[in-house]
């Protein structure tokens, strides 16, 4: 044995010193590599993503109910087929109980996309209970497919990605623990030991018990790992599709904004040209009229010539103005003006929107957002007392609030409520002597990260409210979600409103409060 030569106190062998330096320098590099790999893995699973995958409407939930019912039927049929194959000969429980347990274990699939993690936890909890009591149920093909679907759905549809990783990890760990336990106490292993007791009896190179264990582990890793990978790939694909759709919308809006800018620039040019045309012809008409007035009594021929010039200039001026105005009408209104073209290709002459258009606004397609409209009147017909400018302000407030919900919130539902009350009330220290008209937009979401707007929309709402001396409330609610509420004071009722004997018909008939709902 070779010993290292003695060293003085405090001295170290050169090789030892270089090894320490080498390993000490490598540890931070290894740590950084591990952290980088973990970061990429978490990013692939979307842990820090603020995007949530939500099924589009109630139709998806209805399909999940049908899927759960289909698995329940297949589970009952497979139990009977398994019994016919002798799968439950050693089971003492009655057949009806076995069928009931198999059917009940499929129930969580009925809400697999509404509550994906809860569904997964219930499916695997029931699977563990059946595996420890009536393991024959768990090996049926519909049950195996159900375990794959539950795990796949949890990864593909879970909204909280950190919670998804925790729940999926627990379920997979539970599955492998159960698998190890089955190999430890399984009666089938005794048959392998008895039949292949010596190495000479082995059918192959690997010991039969070990080969069976390795095969089962590889199969389960491929089965459950495939569910996790497939589910995460679908989640990533859905996120990319929505990002591309959002980018397409942004590009479309930018193109529309550029078009609007070009239209505005062209209109400014036409307006300047119109000004020049009018100024020229009006000036000529004025000069000729003054000349005709001066020579009216002395020189009728020159007077007639001046009048002919006035007639000609006026006709030309009107014709040119008509052409320019026709060009303006032929250009469709852009989104900034909020107009549209009429059937004749000219500018739309439709009136400004008001309170009567709120149900239509709410019922419009809001990118899968479930919307509800409610209208409250005290007394019935009080909506008719709201002046048109005030109605327009309330409509624009609801329009801006709904746009903010779609763009900047994770909400899945929103409610637009219109209240018109003639009872005097006080809000925020302000007295509404003749009642108020109020619009309120509530949603159940939270702000999306990275989608904050310029704030000009909310500033516009406040400015509109200020012009009517109203009250505005904008901000998150204590119970969750966001609220935009605007209350404007109603003017004093006119003589016609006071002496009216028959109130207008509302959606609630003769009731004191009218409430109507429009599902969006």
From TrEMBL:
* InterPro entries per UniProt: DUF7134 (IPR055558), HATPase_C_sf (IPR036890), HATPase_dom (IPR003594), Sensor_HK_TwoCompSys (IPR050482), Sig_transdc_His_kin_sub3_dim/P (IPR011712)
The UniProt record lists the keyword Transferase: yes
Coiled-coil residue spans: none
Instruction: Enumerate composition-biased segments (Gly residues).
Output: 335-345
Q: Which CDD domains match?
A: HATPase_UhpB-NarQ-NarX-like
**Segments traversing the membrane:** 65-82, 94-111, 118-135, 165-189, 209-231
**What is this protein called in UniProt?**
histidine kinase
Source organism of this protein record: Promicromonospora aerolata
């Amino acid at each position: 044995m070779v010993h290292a030569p003695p060293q003085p106190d405090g001295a170290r062998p050169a090789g030892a010193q270089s090894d320490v330096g080498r390993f000490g320098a490598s540890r931070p590099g290894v740590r950084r590599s591990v952290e980088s790999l973990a970061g990429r893995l978490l990013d692939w699973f979307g842990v820090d993503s603020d995007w949530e995958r939500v099924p589009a409407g109630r139709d998806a939930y209805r399909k999940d109910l049908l899927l759960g019912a289909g698995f329940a039927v297949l589970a009952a049929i497979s139990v009977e087929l398994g019994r016919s194959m002798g799968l439950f000969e050693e089971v003492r429980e009655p057949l009806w109980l076995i069928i009931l347990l198999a059917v009940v274990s499929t129930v969580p699939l009925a809400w697999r996309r509404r509550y994906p993690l809860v569904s997964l936890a219930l499916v695997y909890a029931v699977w563990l209970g059946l595996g420890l009591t009536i393991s024959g149920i768990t090996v049926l093909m519909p049950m195996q497919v159900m375990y794959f679907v539950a795990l796949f759905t949890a990864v593909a549809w879970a909204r909280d990605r950190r919670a998804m990783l925790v729940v999926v990890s627990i379920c997979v760990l539970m599955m492998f623990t159960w698998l190890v336990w089955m190999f430890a106490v399984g009666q089938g292993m005794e048959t392998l030991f008895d039949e292949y007791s010596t190495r000479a009896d082995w059918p192959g190179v690997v010991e039969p018990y070990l080969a069976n264990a390795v095969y089962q582990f590889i199969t389960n890793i491929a089965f459950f790992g495939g569910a996790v990978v497939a589910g995460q790939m679908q989640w990533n694909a859905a996120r990319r599709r929505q990002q591309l759709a959002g980018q397409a919308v942004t590009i479309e809006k930018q193109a529309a904004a550029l078009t609007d800018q070009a239209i505005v620039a062209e209109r400014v040019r036409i307006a300047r040209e119109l000004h020049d045309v009018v100024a020229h012809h009006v000036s000529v008409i004025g000069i000729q009229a003054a000349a005709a007035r001066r020579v009216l009594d002395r020189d009728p021929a020159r007077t007639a010539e001046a009048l002919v010039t006035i007639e000609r200039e006026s006709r030309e001026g009107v014709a040119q103005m008509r052409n320019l105005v026709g060009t303006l009408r032929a250009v469709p209104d852009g989104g900034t003006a909020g107009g549209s073209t009429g059937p004749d290709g000219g500018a739309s002459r439709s009136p400004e929107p008001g309170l009567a258009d709120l149900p239509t606004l709410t019922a419009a397609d809001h990118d899968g957002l479930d919307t509800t409209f409610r209208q409250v009147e005290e007394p019935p017909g009080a909506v008719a007392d709201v002046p048109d400018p005030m109605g327009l302000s309330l409509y624009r407030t609801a329009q801006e609030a709904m746009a903010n919900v779609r763009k900047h919130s994770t909400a899945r539902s929103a409610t637009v409520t219109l209240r018109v009350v003639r009872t005097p009330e006080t809000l925020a220290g302000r007295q509404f002597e003749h009642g108020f008209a109020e619009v309120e937009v509530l949603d159940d979401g939270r702000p999306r990260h990275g989608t904050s707007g310029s704030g000009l929309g909310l500033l516009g709402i406040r400015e509109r409210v200020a012009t009517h001396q109203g009250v505005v409330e904008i901000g998150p609610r204590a119970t969750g979600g966001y609220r935009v509420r605007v209350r404007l004071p109603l003017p004093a009722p006119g003589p016609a409103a006071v002496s009216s004997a028959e109130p207008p018909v509302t959606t609630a008939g003769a009731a004191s409060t009218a409430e109507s709902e429009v599902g969006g």
